[in-house]
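Trying the structure run again after the queue cleared.
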Amino acid sequence: MSVLVVGLSHRTAPVALLEQVSVSGDALVKLLHDVQQDARVAEAMVVSTCNRVEVYVVVDRFHAAVNAISELLAVHSGVAMERLIGHLYVHYEDRAVEHLFSVGSGLDSMVLGEGQILGQIRSALKLAQEQGTVGSTLNELVQQTLRVGKRSHTETGIDRAGASLVGVGLTLAERTLGPIQGRRALVVGAGSMSALSAATLQRSGVTDIVIVNRTHERAVRLAQTVGGRAARFDDLAAELAEADLVISCTGATDVVVTADMVPARQMFVLDLALPHDVDPAVRRLPGVTLVDLESMQDGDIDAETDDGGRAEAVAAVREIVVQEVAAYLSAERAARVTPTVVALRSKAADVVEAELGRLASRVPSLDGRVRDEVAQTVRRVVDKLLHEPTVRVKQLAESPAGDHYAEALRELFNLDPKVPDAVRRVESVETETNKKEVGR
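Done. Tokens:
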């Protein structure tokens, strides 16, 4: 079984297409289950953000799984396969691991190094766990991705090489409005991105922050955390009339801010929602500057706002990713051979016990102490004979062709590595042997 990812992102598709393919809520759960129910899929997880939609699966057949997942993305998004297929990318086995580690490290983000993707990957795993669509392979891969992402942010300057989407937006706002301190800011929405926006505004010195949300209680709670005030959703137009800087990210499926709600005067509007919260017609209003994910993508915003350490940070993170991919694949290949090693030791233990039983029946008068000494000697001989080949096969298993060595062991010794109680029996024998060796 191998890891496969099929997806599209801001690097391969226009924002308008990403809007159509992006899924959340019940639609995300439905896609997750439809993928997992395919006969070729053993595990499934979907990462769906404003910048990417990726389906991660564990499969035993590559081409059939790629076709099935592509078709499901087309069906769930309502986008014709002919239009979708040109924007999809596919990564398999080693490349899939490298891709996910790169995504988690912020190398594949619209804004280089942004850390929000780690939380989004964590949320994707949590949902898949709740829905019962992941097993040990994806769980371990994602856990390792989170560790790689944290290491990348801790050990390099990737955080400074590219700002968050909100930070980039505020940089652009200051180009339009001048210093934003003393300006009135309106945040539409009260979810995680809105909370990040409000906190970033507060850290930037904005003291007049207004939160508007359909659920007023959530707006009140968010406003309290940044020293702002909450307004009711019905008052959105009135608040827009007074705002200098607007950040909207509600998660709504329809436009929230229409052109007739926005005054024709100097104002900066940052739309971080997917689908769009703000009517694109707002861009045509005199004095109003509208920046959304699509304009950020087209303008290569992160390249404009890096701090000069971009190349060094990227090189450092890429080196971390290379190291971590190699370590992960090495450990994974070694794990694949473990059942074969366990089966070999289990078979050897069975032979030893059978021969000791035969000895006891043939020489029933053998002294108990002598019998124990003989048993320990036989077990030590078998352990020493098996030690070198089992250590070597584990070492060789870390190479790309490592499976062949395990296969050779299975053929030579006629092993069945799927014996249910093999691990328990061998661990029991080895534990008892080790205890006796320590006592000697």
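The longest helix spans residues 310-362. Worth checking whether this holds up in the mutant runs.
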